Structure formats: C-alpha cells, structure tokens
Amino acid sequence: MSSNQYTFYDLASRSPGSTWTPNPWKTRLVLNFKGIDYNTRWLEYPEITPELENHLPPNEKFPRYTIPAIITPDGKYMMDSRPIAEYLESKHPSPSLHLDSSIVDQVDALWWKYMGAIMPIFLNQVPKRILNDASLEHWYRTRKAFVGMSVEELEETKGGEKAWNEAEPVLREATASLKQTEGLFFLGETISYADFIWGSVLLFSERIGPDFFEEALKRTGDAQVHLDLLNAVRPWSV
Questions:
Q1: Can you give the residue ranges of the GST N-terminal domain (predicted)?
Q2: Fewer C-beta neighbours within 10 Å, C or N terminus of the chain?
Q3: Contact 70/12 with Cβ under 8 angstroms?
C-alpha cells in the first residue's frame, strides 16, 4: 500500500463483482467523490471477523464486525460508514460532504425505515441473487438467528405486498424531500452526504434486480426524481 493509499473492505458478490449492499456503497461513493486513492479488498462474510478482530473492537450490536471498513494510510483500522465518512471529511475536507446539514440525519432516518421495511424481502433474495457460495451458510445461519425464523419464512409471512406497503410512505417522504428544492439533490444544487445515503438505497435496490427496483420506483410517487439523483451520483459508483 502506497503512503497515501487507503484500503477499503467491501463485500464480495457474484459477477459483476461490484459493490452491492448500501453501507459499503456510502463509503465507495465518498472515496470516489473526494478523489481519494484506495484499493478494494473483497471479503466473503465468514472472512470479516478474522480479518478485523485483531485490529478493531467489536460492535455492541449484531453483527460484531461489519463492512465497510477501511485501513488509513497510517495503518489505522476503522469500521462503519458514518464514522468513516466523518474521518474522510476531516482528512479530505474538499469537496465537502456537508455533514453538518440537518438533511443528512433526516435522510439517514429514512434510510433506516426503508431498509427495515424491505428487510423481509431482501434477506431472502440477496443469497439467491447476489452472494457467492462461500457466504451462503453464514448468511442463512446468522440471519435466522437475528430474525428468529428462516429468511424463506420471513419473506413468506412478512414480505411481498405487506413489505412494500410499509416501504411506500418512506419512499414518498424521500420524494417530497427531493422535490422541496430546485435541483437534483436534497440540498438543491449542492451535493451532500445525504445524496450518498439515499443513493446507496437506489443502487442496492437496482442491484437486487429489475423487478425489485421497478417496484421501489413505482412506490415513490415520482420515479424520475430518484432516477435523476441516481444518475447524478452514478459517476462515483465505479
């Protein structure tokens, strides 16, 4: 690793083998937006704890070790997308993420609500559509322990229309927030971390598959404002 290069830990997936899950999307978008030099180290789920446990204290919640994580140029390990964003903002302040804007926390709250609403769907669809074989046993075992039932049973009992009906008000709230200002972003013409938070939702929904993405867009009440935001952040999604 060069003296100025970061290492970014991301989650492996099937071809095309790119970022897929929202929290790593936030970090990748920030790294690219700020033009920071980094390399990506892809991990399967069973590899996360062995890779990080000797360098970081565990989370107090499940799971104990998570992706994204980074190694800074001076060898410091960090975990979780928001602390990573705050660190990168402090070390690379331009262009700004505008983390002090109230819209960041507002959109973050919508992120949590949306992900919670659609969890009964994606917990079963992610292993079917995205994960490599090396991560499947870990996913099924840990998610069953987390939700108290198999992911198949979770989707059967709480997914489908029920989950989308719960997600729809959240998506429409995001739509209203985007339409409050002139411009593509939550702050109008100014891009901020809020756009990367919601961009991570859109990129994740798109990666699950066209059926899922189209349903999400339909539930927004105005798909175009979300597509406009997605297209605006996509150059930093490589």
A1: 11-96
A2: C
A3: no
